[in-house]
Amino acid sequence: MRDALTVVGLGDSIGYGIGDCGVNWSGPAWVGRFAHNVGADRVLHLATPGQRATDVLSVQVPAALAANPTVALMSVGGNDLLRGDFNPVAILRCTEKAIARLVGVGATVIVLGLPQACLHDFLPTVVRKTISERALLVNKALASAVRQHSRPRQGGRAHFIDLWTDPRSSQAGLWHIDRMHPSPQGHEYLAQLAAKVSRFHQCQVSLPVRLEGRSTGKLEWLVRNGVPWLLRRSIDLIPQAILTMVFHRRRVTELTAQLDEALTARFPTLHQGIAESPPSTINSCPVMNDDASLAKNSAA
Question: In this predicted model, what pLDDT tens digit does every residue of 138-177 receive, in sequence order?
């Protein structure tokens, strides 16, 4: 008789389930779908919209450890991406510590990288380039933190899902109408990738990716959730976005050097081979995740 398989989800609104099929387009997420696909005995959702790397480490990891997790799924970095205090070194340190604590109790940790997608071509070139460059720094930090714990230790180990180089992750059908969260098909795809990299056996029947007889669609969801959010946030969001673009152009070289220095100091031989030059397409990570209005109905 095997030990109980406990799956814990940590991170932001991607782990929370926004974009999946369910009440108000928020469902089981890739976390719940992974748990179903591998036949988990328990699943604990700790991911919350708006969470950053420091929140995952300080709030979610202690709760996850109390659950004695078998597998911990983590989506982090999207909410750090467009903040004025963006710091890839802080993301590296928080993520590495979080992984170390989870692996230390024998958990398999799966960290989701940030994707690139050809979904925001309407944005100005400077915005696309800034998001792309920052996303690459986030991925470099996340991948390096994972690689430090990629060898089995005390029964646990870490895996990194590299969506940046995955051509399928740019397919429009894998994204919700807001183009910032996975669609039901996208959440299922992430769940399948997680099962594959962790080598867990998958069941033959997955959770549905469509809601039968649904009377309200994605467009209504966007109007009801996205537009009010944009109106509320435009006062501070637009100036913040402009400042982010301006200061990023001045700081990108400095940020890259700081991350490389931190990687060399912490993991001398592990930070080679991560992409340095951003491709022409851009990251599709959450910009709206930091608002609780996008939270799913607790009954979902």
Answer: 999 999 999 989 888 777 999 999 999 988 887 878 886 6
Counting the structural domains of the chain, the total is: 1
Nearest-Å Rg of the Cα atoms of the chain is: 18
In one-letter notation, the amino acid at residue 166 is: D
Tell me the C-alpha to C-alpha distance, in Å, between residue 291 and each of 5, 38, 79, 218, 228.
Answer: 32, 31, 10, 19, 11
Q: Which domain holds residue 52?
A: 6-202+217-294
- Residue 90 in domain: yes
* Within a domain: 209: no
Reported as a single tens digit per residue, the pLDDT across 190-228 is: 999 999 998 887 776 677 676 544 445 555 655 555 555
In a domain, residue 34? The reply is yes
Structure tokens at 271: 């930070």
Residue 32's CATH number: 3.40.50.1110
Tell me if 300 is assigned to some domain. Answer: no
Strand pairing partners for 72? 8, 109
